[in-house]
Amino acid sequence: MRYPLIATQLYGIPLLLDPEKAAVIESVFRAYASGNPTALTEGDRPAPMAAAYAAPRFAGKPYTVTEAGVAVLPIIGTMVHRGSQMDAMSGLTSYTEIERQFDAADADPDVKGILLEDDSNGGQADGAFALGEKIRAGKKPVWASVNEKALSGGYLLACAADRVTMTKTGRVGSVGVIALHQDRSKANEKAGITYTAIHAGAKKNYGTPHEPLSDPARAEMQAMVDGLNDHFVSYVAQMRNLDPAAVRALDAGVLTGQAAIDAGLVDSIMSFQETLKAFEDEVNSVSKPTGNSNGGHPGKGVRTNLPKGVATMSNQAQAAAAEAVTAEQLAAHVAAAQASGATQMQARIRDIQTCDEAKGRSKLAAHLAFNTAMGVDDAKAMLAASAVEAAEAAGQASALAAGMAKLTNPAVGSEAAAAGDPNPQAEAAAVWNRSNAKLRAVK
Hints:
The protein is an alpha/beta fold. It has helices at residues 4-8, 19-33, 95-107, 128-136, 153-158, 185-191, 215-240, 244-249, 257-262, 272-283, 313-354, 362-371, 376-385, 390-405, 413-418, 424-442, and strands at residues 14-17, 64-65, 70-76, 78-80, 92-94, 113-120, 122-124, 142-151, 163-166, 171-173, 178-179, 254-255, 268-269.
């Protein structure tokens, strides 16, 4: 058989892949394996729209970054755990490559938010859940734009984002698991080839492609698929804050439009361009409210402000409920603040008017207490630096006058001469003459 490594990634293992796409991949693989490859062109893999919005100053980065600081990561085509295993079939994206880009963008100081452009039917289960959990745990806000489909593993990654939008013609869902078994026994018989497996343990040869699938092998494979499906359902329910029973009740169906919104799989119907613009406005806004109609990411905060005309009925109803709750909470906060403020104000007035620094300055203390917002400590400092008021000032003046009356005035002018005091004018003239004489001697 040609491409044996590819076969191990396609047959006998659980796939998070839309069944239609699984059938297409399987038919293409059979064509390659038989030596009649189907001609594949670049048109088989949708081109990311992100490139049209790339900012030239960020051209050297391994992902597109817009001028507003949003990194756009493409989740496009069928996904595999590691690249190069199925590259010959073209149109594939590896989880490891998406993870590498996500880690770099999450650590990039030029990046304010990460937008996933999702157009995938899903792929391998290996590596998918680990990548989804990493996206949810990222430090920066993450939105996902379903443009045009996010099915099975493709939706697994999209629902890890804080907010999920979808185009008008978009499709989401297929939350389920599928496994393929290839029975080549008749082809081997026709080719004259007989395969004999020597093995220990009844289950060791379960699922071999060289014989029909036995009932025990089928039951084993079904149990494996059911177990992974339970995990997938729980994962989506947790990421979108939904009832697991509601997710399971979808029966891996594919939803579009309002049905996808009502089921809680997406938040709103928006084009890729509208989503990118709304996200850029969000990550560059001053106020970044948190909360999501479906739970979102409490650690990073989830944005709800959408452009006009794209809010859904469910979003409107939830916004009205949130507004009512906010008004009720605001009233309670206002009442509590008023009561607390009154108590604090009374204590402030009392402390200013009764402090030691207010003694003799009662009018100024009253002004500071009732007519300003000055704190107690600042009021004390101002009072201490201010003069006492008129009544006390008058008392101090009287005491000063009495003290001065006890002192005799010094004799000046003719009174000083009569009293034998030295003549200040004569003394000043003598000093001047002595100075001039010394100056002349120096010359």
